[in-house]
Specification:
alpha/beta, Beta-Lactamase, 4 domains, five-stranded mixed sheet, elongated, PucR family transcriptional regulator ligand-binding domain-containing protein, PucR_C-HTH_dom, PucR_C-HTH_sf
Length: 517
C-alpha cells in the first residue's frame, strides 16, 4: 500500500509541499478524491486523499467546520489547491498539526490530472514491488518443501514477509510452532495462547474451531491492533492442522498471498510427514531406547547400529520444566540444529528431547534454543566414539547427572566433562563395591529412618551440603531450626566420636550420601 509519506515525496516534483500534520505521514492511502462542494456525504470513506479548492465555501468558519467533519471520516490527507486561496488560513494549519492530518499546498498551475497520474504511477511501482516480494516468498516456500525444512521454517518464512504473529496448530489445537516479531517473546506468546485455549476448552469441543480467532483476540486485548484469522490445513483425506495469522493492520495482497502459498506449503509438508510417521521410530531409535532402558546387552558391540550411529559421539539432553512445551520445543530444536549438525538423530524420550550427533554443536546454537524457552536445561555428555552399546548408556547417565547438577547450581547449560566433584561421584556410583561400602557406613541412619519414620539421612545430607548451617538446612527442608538440632543429636548418638566437620569425615559422609541416592 502507498503511504501519505511516499505520495508526498513524489508530489514534491510539482512543488506540492507539506504544510501541516507531519505526524500523520505513515497512514496508508485507499483512494484519491476531488471534493469541491460543502456536502456531508457517506461516500467519503476512511484513508482518502481529499483534493479541494474550497471554492464553494463562503467563509473560513465553513471551511474549518468541514475540515473537522472530514476528520471524523478518518481521511488520510487533505490537499488544498491555491487557485482560490492564495494563502491557506493559519487556523486550518493548526487543525492539521493538532490532529496529525497531513495538509499539502497545491500550486495554482498544477492540475488534478497530474496528481492522479502520479498516484497511479506510484501504485504501479508498488504493485511491481509487491509482485516481486510475492514471487520471492513463494520461491522460498517451495525451496523449504524441496529441502524438507519443516513447518517451523515455513512459518518463519511467512513471518519474515508479513511481520505479524503466526501460529501453527495440529488438528487437536496443540501448538506446533509460532513466529512473532520482537514486540512479543515466542515462549510468552505460546503460553498465553495455550492458556486462552485451555480456559475455553469446552467451547472448542465438537470441532468448533471458528471460536479460536475470537478467543485469541480477547486474550490479546492489550495489543488492540491484533486481529486473528484461522485457516484449516486439510485435504480430502484428512485435516492436518490450522494456520492462524495475527493481523496488525488491514489485509493486503502480500498477506493474502502469504496465506495462500503458506497453506499450500504446510499441506504438502504435512502430507510428506504423515507418510514418514511410521519410520520416525526407526531401528536406531528403537535400539537406543532399549539400551537406555537396560533391555539391550550392554556388553555387545554396536553391530546393530547404522554406520552413522556409531559416529554419534555426543549426546545432548534438553530437560523441560514445563512439559507442555516439549512437542513445540522438539520442533524448534530440530530446526535450530538443522544447518549446524547435519549428522544427528533427535527424538522425544519420556518428555525430554535427546539429540545424538557426530559433531559438537556450537554454544551459540544451544544458547539460542535456551533463550527461546523458560525453564529448559541442557546437559551435554563427553565426546567419545561408541564402540559398545554400553557407551550410549554411559552418555545417557552423564547427561542425566549433568541435569541434576545444573538444577542444584541453577544454571541452564552444563557439560559433563566440566563437572568437578560431581563427575567423580558419578563414576563412583557406577562401581557396586563403592555403593555397598556407602550403604554399610550409613546403615545406622537408614535403619533408624525406617524404624522411626525419621529423616536423618536427608538431614545429614542437607547439613553437610550447607556447610554446617542450621538455618540454611532448616530452610531447605522446610522445618524449624530446633528440628534440625534435635535430628543432629540423634545422628551424633549413632556415630559417637565422629566429628563431621573434620575434613576426612566430611568428604567420606558427603560422598557416601551421594552414592546411595
Amino acid at each position: 500500500m502507498v503511504t501519505v509519506k511516499q505520495f508526498a515525496e513524489k508530489l514534491k516534483f510539482y512543488n506540492i509541499n507539506l504544510i501541516a500534520g507531519m505526524d500523520g505521514m505513515e497512514v496508508e492511502l485507499n483512494y484519491l478524491s476531488i471534493q469541491e462542494l460543502p456536502l456531508i456525504s457517506e461516500r467519503i470513506q476512511s484513508r482518502g486523499f481529499i483534493m479541494t479548492t474550497f471554492a464553494a465555501f463562503t467563509s473560513e468558519v465553513e471551511i474549518i467546520n468541514h475540515v473537522k467533519w472530514l476528520l471524523t471520516r478518518e481521511i488520510a490527507a487533505l490537499a488544498i489547491h491555491s487557485v482560490v486561496l492564495d494563502e491557506i488560513p493559519s487556523s486550518i494549519i493548526s487543525i492539521g498539526n493538532e490532529y496529525s492530518l497531513p495538509i499539502l499546498s497545491i500550486p495554482f498551475e498544477v492540475s488534478y490530472h497530474e496528481i492522479l497520474k502520479t498516484y497511479n504511477q506510484l501504485l504501479l511501482e508498488e504493485s511491481d514491488t509487491l509482485r516481486e516480494q510475492m514471487e520471492k516468498m513463494n520461491l522460498n516456500l517451495l525451496e523449504s518443501i524441496a529441502e524438507d525444512k519443516g513447518a517451523s521454517y515455513i512459518i518463519a518464512t511467512i513471518g519474515k514477509y508479513i511481520n505479524s504473529p503466526i501460529l501453527y496448530f495440529d488438528k487437536e489445537l496443540n501448538i506446533i510452532t509460532v513466529w512473532t516479531d520482537r514486540s512479543i517473546k515466542r515462549d510468552e506468546f505460546s503460553l498465553r495462547v495455550k492458556s486462552a485455549l485451555e480456559n475455553s476448552s469446552n467451547l472448542l469441543k465438537k470441532e468448533k474451531f471458528e471460536k479460536v480467532s475470537a478467543l485469541l483476540k480477547n486474550e490479546f486485548l492489550e495489543e488492540s491492533e491484533l486481529t486473528f484469522c484461522l485457516f484449516p490445513i486439510a485435504d480430502k483425506l484428512d485435516k492436518y492442522g490450522f494456520l492462524v495469522i495475527g493481523y496488525r493492520n488491514t489485509q493486503n495482497l502480500l498477506v493474502d498471498s502469504a496465506v495462500k502459498y503458506g497453506k499450500t506449503a504446510l499441506l504438502i509438508d504435512a502430507v510428506k510427514r504423515k507418510s514418514l510417521v511410521k519410520f520416525l521410530k526407526n531401528q536406531d531409535i528403537r535400539l537406543l531406547e532399549s539400551i537406555i532402558e537396560g533391555k539391550a546387552k550392554n556388553s555387545s558391540k554396536t553391530a546393530n547400529f547404522s554406520l552413522m550411529m556409531k559416529e554419534y559421539n555426543q549426546m545432548y539432553l534438553f530437560h523441560f520444566s514445563n512439559k507442555e512445551l516439549v512437542n513445540y520445543g522438539f520442533t524448534y530444536i530440530y530446526d535450530e540444529l538443522d544447518g549446524q549438525a547435519q549428522d544427528k538423530v533427535i527424538w522425544i524420550y519420556e518428555q525430554e528431547v535427546i539429540c545424538l550427533t557426530s559433531s559438537k554443536i556450537k554454544i551459540q546454537n544451544l544458547e539460542n534454543i535456551l533463550e527461546n524457552f523458560t525453564g529448559v536445561i541442557c546437559g551435554i555428555s563427553e565426546f567419545k566414539e561408541n564402540t559398545y552399546e554400553e557407551d550410549i548408556l554411559k552418555k545417557f547417565k552423564q547427561v542425566q547427572r549433568s541435569i541434576e547438577v545444573a538444577k542444584f547450581k541453577e544454571t541452564r547449560l552444563i557439560f559433563y566433562e566440566e563437572l568437578g566433584f560431581e563427575k567423580y561421584m558419578f563414576i563412583l556410583k557406577e562401581e557396586e563395591e563403592a555403593k555397598e561400602a556407602a550403604k554399610r557406613l550409613l546403615e545406622p541412619l537408614i535403619e533408624f529412618d525406617l524404624n522411626n519414620r525419621a529423616e536423618l539421612v536427608l538431614t545429614l545430607k542437607s547439613y553437610l551440603r550447607n556447610f554446617f548451617s542450621l538455618k540454611k538446612s532448616a530452610e531447605e527442608l522446610f522445618v524449624h531450626r530446633n528440628t534440625i538440632s534435635y535430628r543432629l543429636e540423634k545422628i551424633h548418638e549413632l556415630y559417637k566420636g565422629i566429628n563431621f566437620e573434620k575434613q576426612e569425615n566430611y568428604l567420606l559422609f558427603t560422598m557416601s550420601l551421594d552414592l546411595i541416592e
